[in-house]
Write a structure and sequence with these properties.
Number of helices of chain A: 7
Oligomer: heterodimer
Structural class of chain B: alpha/beta
CATH superfamily of one domain in chain A: Bacterial phosphonate metabolism protein PhnH
CATH architecture of one domain in chain A: 3-Layer(aba) Sandwich
Order of helices and strands of chain B: EHEEHEHEHHHHEHEHEEHH
Largest sheet of chain A: 7 strands, mixed
CATH class of one domain in chain A: Alpha Beta
Radius of gyration of chain A: 19 Å
Distance between the termini of chain B: 42 Å
Strand order of the largest sheet of chain B: 5-6-7-3-8-9
Shape of chain A: globular
Shape of chain B: globular
């Protein structure tokens, strides 16, 4: 632990301000609470929102896990873990079940989260209506009046263009039947995991200076049309080439020499724990 | 006639003493005497009186023309009616909203949206204001349907295709964004959008200004046809007297934020009473 740094990098009043915004976000599910996003030692757009949430929450007894695109060992995840552990001395882990704070970009872990865990998602664009309306003042008014035809219009336009909803990630959701929320760029596959989750889900956008939340056991419904119901990506007929798992979210890889396509678990920790179980570790 | 309402009571939109000013007002222009104003602004504080106590009724199925020079307040009326501007004072009642008993400026933002989406349609002079240029034409029309609560893609697509066909947009271009269209086509998409929810009242703001003559004729034809097919009441703002003469049953002449003359369109064109109207009619080429 670096003795020259504040505990968890940020000074105490900054952490308190972030925690206050977080509390407000939890009390109004899906509502974007503005906060004074700090300069961080990583660039904006690289997870500063999530990092500030993590640092404001981390305590002595916590175990932190960081995922980037499902992987625990990608550069961004490793760097964030290093910063957290060098300024707090808390343990980092790769095992989903043993982590108390999980900061993630692009995925919700395959293993169901527990009531004593907090999932922190990094968000690039927190405003689900941004594509429809550029002005922040205008989108705030739309939220306050629960006027969400813009969110549906974006989906309608995709159906007109491509014959189906084409949101690869960040498919908008209605939270607690009040606010439409951008779930961060998680695949549609992960959207249903937000509904009535046992764990608290926090979302932080550092560049856009917003924090919002889905409290445990909150109703989260993905937006859809009557004749185009919401569907998750189909993973049928695929299995992981390492652990043999089915029904999980996969990375699609290609062998450069043979041109053969194969699939592998996107959640590396989940893959590892399945392989360990096989070997009786 | 099955309608038991007394003649003169069959209005669909009633505007009562609508006023709009831009500026803080001073002691001089607060006095009731309108003669202190220089044209439509106060010489002392510069407050602009865009509308001064304008009242009129729009009847079922009629086209009411509003003419006047630039800055006379024509468009300000439509902007207030469509909530693009908040009037300073005055009341507006719409027959299809709570039986015409409630002033539409006294209700919440959510109910205002309801009125905009169910009772009114507006066609702007500049299509940029009425359309989402980067969304497809079909989606543009669906926007109003979605806002009115429709959640079935198939229904909305059918309705949008029908309307676009009605305004002569070729089928193979319906999925294109209006940004790729010519001005006349954009204007026709805008008209289709305004019609999407069968509004009883259509607001038309200089719809043909800036279009070339042959395209103008097509748009005017379309408006005539819509009026015949759907029996919609229309407020038609134009500084082009020829357009008003062709479409409007009755006409209001505006000058400096007030109505200076009103009557049957033919009457106004043939026998103008007010000095300004005379000037206007005789300047018609």
């Amino acid at each position: 632990m670096n003795p020259l740094s504040n505990y968890a990098f940020l000074d105490e009043s900054s952490k308190r301000e972030i925690r206050r915004a977080t509390l407000k976000a939890i009390s109004i599910p899906g509502y974007q609470v503005p906060f004074a996003s700090r300069e961080m030692p990583i660039a904006r757009g690289w997870g500063t929102g999530g990092l500030q949430l993590t640092l404001s929450l981390v305590g002595k007894g916590d175990r932190v896990k960081v995922i980037d695109q499902g992987a625990d060992e990608s550069v961004n995840a490793v760097n964030i873990k290093k910063l957290v552990s060098s300024t707090t001395g808390v343990e980092v882990t790769e095992f989903t079940a043993s982590a108390s704070l999980i900061q993630s970009r692009h995925r919700i872990p395959e293993e169901p989260l527990q009531a004593d865990q907090i999932l922190i998602l990094q968000v690039p664009i927190p405003e689900p209506l941004r594509l429809y309306e550029r002005s922040e003042a205008a989108t705030r008014k739309l939220h306050s009046e629960k006027e969400y035809s813009g969110a549906y219009l974006i989906l309608f336009e995709q159906i007109m263009r491509y014959g189906r909803v084409s949101t690869g990630a960040d498919h908008p959701v209605m939270v607690n039947d009040r606010y439409v929320m951008a779930p961060s760029p998680i695949p549609r596959f992960d959207n249903p995991k937000m509904d009535s989750s046992d764990a608290l889900i926090l979302l932080g956008a550092g560049r856009e200076k917003k924090i919002y939340a889905v409290p445990p056991h909150t109703r989260v419904v993905s937006l859809d049309f009557k004749d185009h119901p919401f569907e998750i990506e189909s993973v049928e007929g695929r299995c992981c080439r390492l652990c043999g798992a089915t029904g999980v979210y996969f990375d699609e890889l290609q062998d450069n020499e043979t041109g053969e396509t194969f699939y592998q678990c996107n959640d590396t920790a989940h893959c590892l724990s399945l392989m360990n179980a096989e070997d009786g570790v | 006639m099955s309608d038991a309402r007394a003649p003169g009571e069959d209005w669909v939109l009633r505007t009562n003493k609508l006023s709009k000013q831009f500026g803080d007002r001073c002691d001089l222009c607060r006095s009731v005497d309108p003669s202190v104003l220089e044209r439509n602004f106060c010489p002392k504080c510069g407050t602009v009186y865009a509308l001064r106590s304008v009242s009129f009724d729009l009847y079922r199925g009629e086209v009411l023309g509003i003419v006047g020079e630039s800055g006379s307040g024509k468009s300000t009326i439509l902007n207030c009616l469509y909530y693009d501007l908040e009037p300073t004072s005055g009341e507006v009642f719409v027959r299809d909203f709570e039986e015409g008993q409630t002033n539409i400026f006294s209700v919440s933002g959510q109910r205002r949206r309801h009125i905009r989406n169910h009772v009114l349609g507006k066609v702007y002079q500049n299509p940029v204001h009425g359309l989402r240029m980067r969304f497809s034409s079909l989606a543009n029309i669906a926007e109003k349907l979605i806002a009115a609560g429709n959640r079935t893609v198939g229904d909305m697509e059918d309705r949008a295709r029908n309307l676009l066909e009605h305004v002569n947009i070729p089928t193979f271009r319906m999925k294109e964004a209006p940004a790729n269209f010519s001005g006349g086509m954009q204007q026709r998409v805008q008209i289709a959008k305004a019609l999407s929810n069968n509004p009883p009242v259509l607001l038309l703001d200089e719809v043909t200004t800036g279009l070339d003559l042959s395209v103008q004729a097509k748009v005017l034809d379309l408006i005539k046809q819509i009026r015949r097919d759907f029996e919609i009441s229309m407020l038609l703002v134009s500084h082009d007297l020829a357009v008003v003469r062709m479409l409007a049953d009755r006409t209001i002449v505006m000058l400096n934020g007030t109505i200076v003359e009103r009557g049957l369109t033919d009457q106004i064109m043939e026998d103008p009473q007010h000095a300004y109207t005379q000037e206007l009619v005789y300047s018609l080429l």
